[in-house]
Amino acid sequence: MSIRKFIALIALLNALVATYLHMWKIGLAGSLACGGAGGCEYIQGSRYGWFMGVDVALIGAVGYSLVFLVATIGSLTQFEDEAWPARLLQLLVFPAFLFTLRLKYAEFIILKGFCPWCAISAVSITVLTVLMVVEWKRVQRVRAS
Questions:
Q1: Could you tell me the pTM of the whole model?
Q2: Which of 11, 124, 125, 139 is paired with 99 by a 20 to 30 Å CA distance?
Q3: What total of structural domains would you count in the chain?
Q4: Is 125 within the bounds of a domain?
Q5: pLDDT tens-digit map of 98-145
């Protein structure tokens, strides 16, 4: 499996999780499946569950969907060694990583809470960030040869 296909798979799974969290927040998903003492509801319902009036889960769903789309297109044979998909993925993933750091700070330090779904997303975006660095280096090697 290529790095871009792996990125697409991670993004698809996280887009589904973020969509689930958004659907819960707008009342379309029933109760929130979250282990522990309701940390998910506490975190999702806090002021940090919104950014400039937009649900953070919706931002995640859209963002991960865009990463999935770009990684999938970039995995096509005619684009697999092209630089533009890697550059576009960087433009999507790197700001998301920084945004996630802000959210994790708020979750752990300010709110003193824990949401397992949010933790999955944080680990995933960190993995995607590392994969983007590896992918960019791969593309640069291919272009140099």
A1: 0.93
A2: 139
A3: 1
A4: yes
A5: 999 999 999 999 999 888 989 999 999 999 999 999 999 999 999 998
